[in-house]
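>> Question from a student workshop board

For tomorrow's exercise we were told to take the sequence and the ligand below, predict the bound structure, and bring the output to class. My setup keeps failing. Could a helper post the expected result so I can at least see what it should look like? The ligand is pyridoxal-5'-phosphate.
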Amino acid sequence: MADNTDGDIPFARPFIGREEEEAALRVLRSGWLTTGAEALAFEKEFAQFLKDAFLRNDGLHCLAVNSATSGLHLALEACGVGEGDMVLVPSYTFTATAEVVRYLGADPVFVDIAPGTFHIDPAALEKVLSKLSPDILSAGKPKAVIPVHFGGLLCDMEAIMDIARRYNLKVIEDAAHSFPIARITGDAGVFSFYATKTITTGEGGMVVCHNEDIARRISIMRSHGIDRPAWNRYSDVGATWYYEVTEAGYKYNLPDLLAAVGRVQLSRAWELLRMRQDIAAAYDSAFSGDDRFLIPPTASTGGAGPGDARHLYPLRLNLRRPGVRDEVIQKLKAAGIGVSVHFIPLHIMPYYKNRYGLAEDDFPETMKAFRREISLPIWPGMDKAQVERVIGVVREVTDTVRYF
Ligand SMILES: Cc1ncc(COP(=O)(O)O)c(C=O)c1O
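>> Workshop helper replied:
Here is what the output should look like for this input. Compare the format with yours to find the bug.
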């Protein structure tokens, strides 16, 4: 990649090479654009990838979908979440995690993050559950929990699984940020292939689960509630024209055009991960000795995971004066550095705040993390000079703001 250290540095950029272009062309010329042989091959290769990565031989089902949002919706539906149920989710996440709960007529119950992390706090989760009335608990209202592996840093799944077992909750892992690191130990997990994610198809996702009944339900519901995928109907000469609609399903299938790109991205997953990890390591060593900054918790600094997918690099400013973070962002943008904030907590979003009568202070650790956070550029293909420039500008900018 050309050295463009004098130009703007985008916040994110997909790593697309000739193989991805050729894969897309192959499908465009094939006469079959929608879900078919490529999507099926992508699912098979994805399952094999996870088996090899985690040395697992349990029954793994991988179902390609058109977004992680669709995947989360399908997973909750297949786990039996419905009208009037409660699903525990962190406030510190993207709205997709909670909106899918509303799709099903259930309600998200927000939980704070653990101090110093970006992840749902097992102690806070337990506290919320223990305060529910015996009536609500015995009616089985709390149905599921969605831990979010924020930024590619893994949640404490052991603690969450233990609580889920005791309260009879299904566990749907929001792994949108964490391919290829998240192992998926819950009832289902969902990866995202959105344009900025660790591997991408532009838009897309993959649901992973271990239970055949859940997998079957998802497979039917992702294609209109029809008990047979379209490509069989049209491409298999032996197939009949007959099909049955057994549910009012959705249209959440991943087209072959995108699946073909996904297969190439999958084959590069370790290489793409290494590039992200190298950038994160450079940021870690630049910012860790400076008490104006807090580097992200990782496997080695108190995070729970065996390594981190590094979808995001969430730097926190060690500030006391409100408004510093926004001032720093403004200056970074003016200097041509693309940055973002992950996330604006859901409990302060008008929809959730008004619907559930929530106050800013209800989730203090979430607010603390949000007020300090700046996501720095991190994408495969970002060269050393660009990384050095980001480090230099962050230091320069923070030298010019009053911190306390
Ligand atoms: C935590 C989280 N969950 C779910 C999603 C939804 O992913 P998708 O865009 O593939 O629907 C996102 C999207 O960025 C996300 O950040």
